[in-house]
Write a structure and sequence with these properties.
Distance between the termini: 74 Å
Number of helices: 1
Strand order of the largest sheet: 1-2-5-4-3-12
Radius of gyration: 22 Å
Helix content: 10-25%
Strand content: 35-45%
Largest sheet: 6 strands, antiparallel, barrel
């Protein structure tokens, strides 16, 4: 009798424990989402930009690693070409805008090029994605003063990207095959594989 009752009690306790663990996990997810949204709202307040908040609802099956789909479109003011950011920095650009959803090309896509500069030295170059998914800052003079850890931001030299948006930090440098210029490998400040909410900047 005692064995049976203990067995039943143990099963009930396991079920309650599993339920409480699931509740705790759900609360943790909610807390993390609220934290991200609060930081996005803080960015909206201090940046001075007009922005549209959007939630990531999927990835482009044809370009899974460097394109995502958000839940805002032309009905909300989103249009092709607008810049997409998070509170950590630049994420990408809108490449297609439907009425209620849009496709965002992330900055690790090889087809995206960004006028940029080293924040410390003001040295200018072009940042683009690569087939390996990393960022490369190219067309740097061979005598450029670049150090590991240097921050890279948008230069504002073209009207496509507002000036001063954080892109990432330098993790390595090298010379191109001709030896005439230098390049830097950049680690994005935004975790592009884990985006859940973004802001679309409206000029």
């Amino acid at each position: 009798v005692f064995y049976h009752r203990n067995y039943v009690d143990a099963g009930r306790l396991r079920s309650e424990n599993d339920f409480l663990r699931n509740v705790a996990n759900a609360r943790q997810e909610e807390l993390q989402e609220l934290t991200r949204i609060r930081k996005l709202l803080e960015l909206k307040e201090v940046s001075g930009y007009k922005v549209i908040a959007a939630r990531v609802i999927g990835r482009d099956p044809s370009n899974w690693a460097s394109a995502l789909i958000v839940d805002k479109g032309t009905l909300h003011g989103v249009r092709k070409g607008l810049v997409v950011v998070t509170f950590l920095g630049l994420a990408g650009r809108v490449v297609d805008a439907g009425q209620t959803v849009s496709t965002v090309m992330l900055i690790n896509d090889p087809h995206l090029s960004i006028s940029s500069r080293i924040q410390r030295t003001r040295q200018e170059g072009i940042v683009s994605g690569s087939l390996g998914g990393t960022l490369l800052m190219k067309f740097l003079p061979k005598d450029s003063d670049i150090s590991i850890g240097d921050q890279v931001v948008t230069s504002g030299l073209t009207p496509l990207y507002p000036k001063g948006l954080m892109i990432g930090s330098v993790t390595a440098t090298g010379a191109d095959f001709s030896g005439a210029s230098k390049y830097a490998v950049i680690r994005p400040s935004v975790d592009l594989a884990a985006l859940e909410e973004v802001l679309v900047i409206v000029p």
